[in-house]
Design brief:
Blueprint (H helix, E strand, L loop, with lengths): L2 H12 L2 E6 L5 E6 L2 H13 L24 E4 L3
Parallel strand pairs: 1-3
Antiparallel strand pairs: 1-2
Helix pairs in contact: 1-2
């Protein structure tokens, strides 16, 4: 399982909304909306990553609430 699908699956299991997408420089961006406990659990999962992924760093920051992403969690294919 790739990292984006791992992130989507983890978010959906935790009831987190948002998206995951690849960035043009090879990093992956995750935008997540949820409660504190949900977001902390998702961050733990993202640091662990899927079995074949080599996660080297996870940076977290606050972001403004984007209502368009408040329902469900999607893989975004746009850069």
């Amino acid at each position: 399982m790739g990292y984006r699908y791992f992130a989507q699956n983890s978010a959906e299991q935790l009831g987190v909304a948002g998206y995951v997408k690849n960035l043009s420089d090879g990093r992956v961006e995750v935008y997540a909306i949820g409660g504190t406990a949900q977001l902390q659990a998702l961050a733990r999962e993202l640091r662990r990553g899927p079995r074949l992924a080599g996660v080297t760093d996870v940076n977290e920051s606050q972001a403004e609430l984007l209502p368009d992403f408040a329902f469900g969690f999607a893989v975004n294919y746009d850069y």
